[in-house]
Specification:
Elements: E1 3-7, E2 15-17, E3 22-23, E4 47-48, H1 59-71, E5 97-101, H2 128-186, H3 188-209, H4 216-236, H5 245-258, H6 264-297, H7 303-313, H8 328-338, H9 340-343, H10 346-364, H11 369-374, H12 376-389, H13 391-399, H14 429-443, H15 451-455, E6 468-469, E7 474-475, H16 503-516, H17 539-550
Antiparallel strand pairs: 1-2, 1-5, 3-4, 6-7
Length: 553
């Protein structure tokens, strides 16, 4: 007589009943699984049936009632573990249905005709709905796995963005306060009126660092344009007590023509350009790095990849093989196929790390940001002193300008300047953080070249076992060809078809390439430098090195 098999998903019972056979059942403990069902350890107990359970009306409920009653005897019981079954393994592949296995043609069996992925000759416990659940599971697990790999790298980049912006803001406030103190201490007659131009100068510097469409040159020159009417009327000609808007505008517009501050404005532009440019580029690099990580974490899985991952990770469960793991070569083929587009980031990512290293070295050099910002007040002071020293000539020049006439007579005299000595404050926070950051980033140079290998490392594959899963059966070794990384190599991938480069990844590659070329467009130029002039194929470092040559020219 055939055996009656009742199969149910836990937490519930598995019952096999037949003449002369023991009644076997398991009460499972809970554990998360991709289908939301559970697994656990069980005890063992056997009972003999005097009469077999016969298929027919009500037999299913009778069997279940019998087994449920046994479950209340005071301890959990189960059957001895057969070969290939782990007592603590997933029971969840067993599905909620009753099957009568009578061993003759036409008897009800599990319907496998609708399975699209886990198609095997052996009996299966899977359904199409379970395959769909498995596909959702591998998508979720793939995202989580890449997020786990990315975690430290992402933490370093996002953390450095925050730390850099906080440190820069601290430096900016320090430099602005120091410059304001210069006017309040040494140039008191114009201190109140100079407050707004000073504030605008440092606001423009902040906006430039954060990526606004402005330049260091325009910020500095705009400041000196606003400063000249104040210096002329409050220091060179202090008898001018009431400046009209027209007269102030006239002096502002003629500042660049008569050059009252000498070479100091241009020198300040040169001093600020390199350190501010490197800082601006570093902020852009960090944001781009964060975008690369976020995009790769959430890149969509192709249909082929999803199916291949299910076949690799969950199809063995359909045959009760819950402990078996994929062969290493099999896993590498699947992962390299799924991540073919992501691995194409490798070349540009390597060069991107080189650019980060260059920018960090620029900030840590003699042109570092701390020195440039903290020296602004000194350059402004030197410029004002130069204008005072040449006060008579400036007055004579302004007086002959037809558009700048002022009727009041002035008693010209030099204002005695008492310059307060500021305590030198050396801020090494940014330099230290940048060095620590780039040392870590250099270790991530091969991140996208090795991502498939890292995903296949650890518990996912069988490394110390004599058997493994090859996608079809349990074997001693994987015999198919193992392809290398990269999109072109996937033509020969035996496990899945790769149709082409993901458009989102392609966009990232273009962004990295553009950035790595040193930004040979207006958003990355030094003031008055024109194009960087990098030769075709010269790469980021050549373009960036050429840029340093233009500073101050």
């Amino acid at each position: 007589m055939g055996a009656v098999s009742i199969q149910v998903c836990p937490p519930a019972l598995l019952v096999l009943c037949g003449e002369g056979l023991p009644v076997l059942f398991a009460v499972a403990e809970h554990r998360d699984s991709p289908l939301g069902t559970e697994r656990g350890s069980v005890g063992t107990h056997q009972l003999q049936l005097k009469q077999p359970l016969q298929p027919g009306v009500g037999w299913e409920w009778g069997a279940l009632a019998t087994c449920v009653a046994l479950a209340f005897l005071g301890k959990a019981v189960s059957f001895p573990e057969p070969d290939g079954w782990d007592g603590g393994g997933h029971l969840w592949p067993l599905f909620l249905r009753v099957s009568v296995l009578r061993g003759k043609e036409g008897s009800p069996r599990l319907n496998t005709s609708d399975l699209q992925i886990c198609q095997h000759r052996a009996p299966t416990c899977c359904t199409k709905k379970m395959e769909e659940s498995y596909q959702a599971a591998v998508r979720r697990e793939r995202t989580q796995s890449i997020q786990a790999l990315n975690f430290e790298l992402k933490y370093m980049i996002v953390g450095h963005i925050t730390a850099f912006q906080e440190a820069f803001e601290s430096l900016r406030r320090f430099a602005e306060n120091r410059t304001s103190s210069l006017f309040e201490t040494a140039y008191r007659p114009m201190a109140k009126e100079a407050a707004e131009p000073v504030k605008e100068l440092f606001t423009d510097i902040s906006l430039y660092i954060l990526g606004a469409e402005t330049t260091v040159e325009s910020a500095v020159l705009r400041f000196f344009d606003s400063l000249f009417p104040l210096v002329y009327s409050r220091l060179i000609n202090p008898g001018i007590t009431d400046l009209s808007e027209d007269y102030t505008e006239c002096l502002r517009l003629t500042r660049q023509d008569i050059n009252p501050f000498g070479h100091y404005p241009k020198n300040l532009v040169t001093e600020l350009s390199r350190s501010l440019w490197a800082s601006r580029m570093l902020i852009q690099a960090l944001r781009l790095g964060s975008e690369v990580i976020n995009t790769t974490e959430h890149a969509a899985l192709s249909k082929e990849c999803s199916r291949a991952l299910v076949k690799m990770q969950y199809c063995p469960h359909c045959q009760g093989l819950t402990l078996i793991r994929p062969c290493v070569g099999y896993c590498l083929n699947v992962m390299r196929g799924c991540l073919a587009s992501v691995s194409e980031l490798d070349a540009q990512w390597r060069e991107f790390i080189s650019v980060l290293e260059y920018l960090t070295n620029e900030m840590a050099s003699s042109h570092e940001l701390e020195m440039a910002l903290s020296g602004i007040w000194s350059s402004i002071n030197e410029a004002i002193l130069h204008a005072q020293l040449n006060g008579p000539q400036l007055s004579a020049t302004v007086s002959v300008l037809p558009s700048c006439k002022f009727s009041n007579s002035n008693d010209q005299h030099q204002l005695s300047i008492s310059i307060k000595t500021f305590t030198a404050v050396v801020l090494n926070v940014l330099s230290l953080r940048c060095r620590e950051f780039i040392n870590y980033m250099k270790r991530s140079r091969t991140f996208y070249a090795s991502i498939a290998e890292r995903l296949c490392d650890g518990d996912l594959v069988m490394r110390d076992s004599s058997t493994c899963w090859n996608g079809e059966d349990v074997v001693e070794s994987y015999t198919s060809r193992v392809v290398s990384n990269g999109l072109k190599a996937q033509i020969n991938n035996p496990e899945l078809k790769v149709r082409g480069l993901d458009p989102l990844i392609n966009n990232l590659i273009d962004k990295l390439h553009h950035f790595n070329q040193g930004g040979c467009d207006r958003s990355f130029r030094f003031p008055d430098s024109g194009k960087c002039g990098a030769e075709e194929g010269e790469g980021a470092m050549g373009c960036l090195k050429k840029k340093t040559h233009f500073i101050g020219q």
